[in-house]
Amino acid sequence: MKKISFQSLVEIFLVSTRLGFTSFGGPVAHLGYFHEEYVRRRKWMDEKSYADLVALCQFLPGPASSQVGIGIGVMRGGVIGGLVAFLGFTMPSVIALIVFALVLLEFNVADAGWIHGLKIVAVAVVAHAILGMAGKLAPDLKRKAIVLAALAVVLLWQTVFTQVGVIVVAGIIGYLLYKEHNVEKAPAFTFPLSRKFGAACLALFFGLLVLLPILREATSMNWIALFDSFYRSGALVFGGGHVVLPLLEREFVPTGWLTAEEFLAGYGAAQAVPGPLFTFAAYIGAVINGWQGGLFATFAIFLPAFLLILGALPFWDTLRRNPNIQGALMGVNAAVVGILIAAFYTPIWTSSIVEAIDFVFAAILFSMLVYWKLPPWVVVLTGAIGGALLSTLV
């Protein structure tokens, strides 16, 4: 392990915290901010190493931008540096969303017009995400067919196992269809972590994924059920932060832990804060069990991402050259688009667009985001104000 001074850890924390306060715009934008700060300005990494790290984090399930930040921290300061970089980048949005949840509960404003406006913001944001992801992750007819099949299965057979099953089957289909896929040759790539340490992290990742559902069934402890729901959601997200939406919705809305209105209001608010979209979990945890629940949810949903990046770094050089693994991932990513479209229909569309004027307002917000390229916080603020005005007209 790389030895790191306290001064260097403070530097990593301050730089990552500044990025946590200013990185608006989603994962792709975050990667741009990271490149500017870590590669161009501070030269903590070279261009090739950064590109390889981004490729690894796109390959793994979980929040790609957070995992890139952790990886940069690891390169700079070992495992502790990765943890410090993660805390700095994540905590600003976690705190903001916990405060929002507590205000929402304290003043009972779930039915307020501006909350409905935030739900319409979610329509525009997820529609934008779907269009971008579909173009990149399902460019050919085979993967478009996987998208359609995943969409149909998730909507028509809504069980707790459906989404996991769809992802597994899509991976098998991707392997069969794309196992001859050409893999681009890449230069050698190393990180300051041993393979033994990486194997231990991967073993813990898969161990928790298997053990937590068993403990959940064997006990009646709410905190184990919550930990399992957040951990599993964080562990099964392929394709970006927006994909966590359907996973979290299936875990917490049907079970009655929070209402569809509370869920979508928080998702809309999550668009207004910088940092990773996974911090939406902090809002859900705070609605369920106050600020303690928010911190607990944050730990649980990010833990698999942390274990995966630490576990995969020592093996990445071998994995990225394997066409079979890349083929399976191509199928999984296509299925993810179908899952996200299903979530776009329900609960987002069905609970947000109830009048013609709602659709018009959603189209305006979508245009602001996609065509006028306005910052997400401007779109969210417009949604909240517009929702309050619409409530006085309808």
TrEMBL record:
Q: What is its main location?
A: membrane
Membrane topology per the entry is: Multi-pass membrane protein
Q: Which residues cross the membrane?
A: 12-33, 82-107, 113-134, 146-177, 197-218, 268-288, 295-316, 328-346, 353-371
Assigned GO CC terms: plasma membrane
UniProt subcellular location:
Cell membrane
Q: Which UniProt keywords apply?
A: Cell membrane, Membrane, Transmembrane, Transmembrane helix
InterPro entries with a match to the protein in the record: Chr_Tranpt_l_chain (IPR014047), Chromate_transpt (IPR003370)
Q: Which GO terms describe its molecular function?
A: chromate transmembrane transporter activity
Would the keyword Membrane be found if you checked this record's keyword annotation?
yes
State the family named in the UniProt similarity comment for this chain: Belongs to the chromate ion transporter (CHR) (TC 2.A.51) family.
Q: What is the protein's name according to its record?
A: ChrA protein
According to its UniProt entry, this protein's organism is Domibacillus enclensis
